[in-house]
Amino acid sequence: MKKTLLFIMALAGTFLSPVIINAQERLSITPRVGFNLSSIGGEGSLDAYSTRLGFTGGVDAEYRFIPQLGVSLGVAYSQQGCNTNEVWNYKDFDKDISWRIKSHQLHYLKVPLMLNFHVGKGFTLKTGAEVGYLLAARDKGPEYGYWGIWRGVTTVPPGDYGTMYYPDGSKAPEPSPNGLYGDVQEFNEKGSKDMIDAYHRFYCAIPIGLSYEYRHFMVDARFHFNLVKIVRAQPDNLMDNRCFSITVGYRFNL
Questions:
Q1: Closest among 127, 81, 125 to 101, alpha carbons compared
Q2: Helix (H) or strand (E) segment spanning residue 15
Q3: pTM, 2 dp
Q4: Are strands 202-214 and 69-92 parallel, antiparallel or unpaired?
Q5: Which end is more exposed in the chain, N or C (fewer Cβ atoms within 10 Å of the end residue's Cβ)?
Q6: Strand 69-92 vs strand 180-181: parallel, antiparallel, or unpaired?
Q7: Rounded to whole angstroms, how far apart are CA atoms 27 and 64?
Q8: Would you give the end-to-end CA distance of the chain in angstroms?
Q9: Pick the residue with more confidence: 155 or 45?
Q10: C-alpha distances in angstroms, 103 versus 35, 37, 141?
Q11: What pLDDT score was predicted for residue 191?
Q12: Distance between CA 247 and CA 141 in Å, rounded?
């Protein structure tokens, strides 16, 4: 009888071991910090846009149903956007007008919900969805200029200057064939310009990533596939976020 009972217990342990987890390892918290490599792409983006390095940091809480599968909910701050070399120079008779932008900076608060597939030897495959909110948006550079109302005619030097926009995102008038604008105002200011009203506040993406854990230290890499356009002021503009993040964290079992 004892041998039969021991055999049944051993057999049950064999089949149930994948779903038995130490209570202290079922729930965990992982603070993490790192960096983003981000840009702005899609229809409406410029060739001048390039990758921007930004900070990201947050915390994830994971619950494991079985050792091989868990779900996590997190919150993170994320600096995104892009660098650029947009330099616009104009001449209004005796006045020089400059529009110089070095970076478009977007600051998000994100909430990722992830499925975590623990494939063994410290590696975890991750996918899910994340939503977010735009906290701030600024155009920064050594000088910043924008379109306004100017009584007179502004002469534009020859060259391809692309499409111009007012601060609210509406399209500026196209120049006449002789390169003249009729309603341009000169503005030249060092520092940055608040542009949050030009962007959608809501953010949504599908993150896909891979992490490696060693003695509770974790390195996590994710690519975030953007699902929504980011420019609110221009309905026909289809620009979106492009973001790859790498973070380092430490997992605390609860």
A1: 81
A2: helix 2-16
A3: 0.71
A4: unpaired
A5: N
A6: unpaired
A7: 7
A8: 40
A9: 45
A10: 17, 13, 7
A11: 64
A12: 28
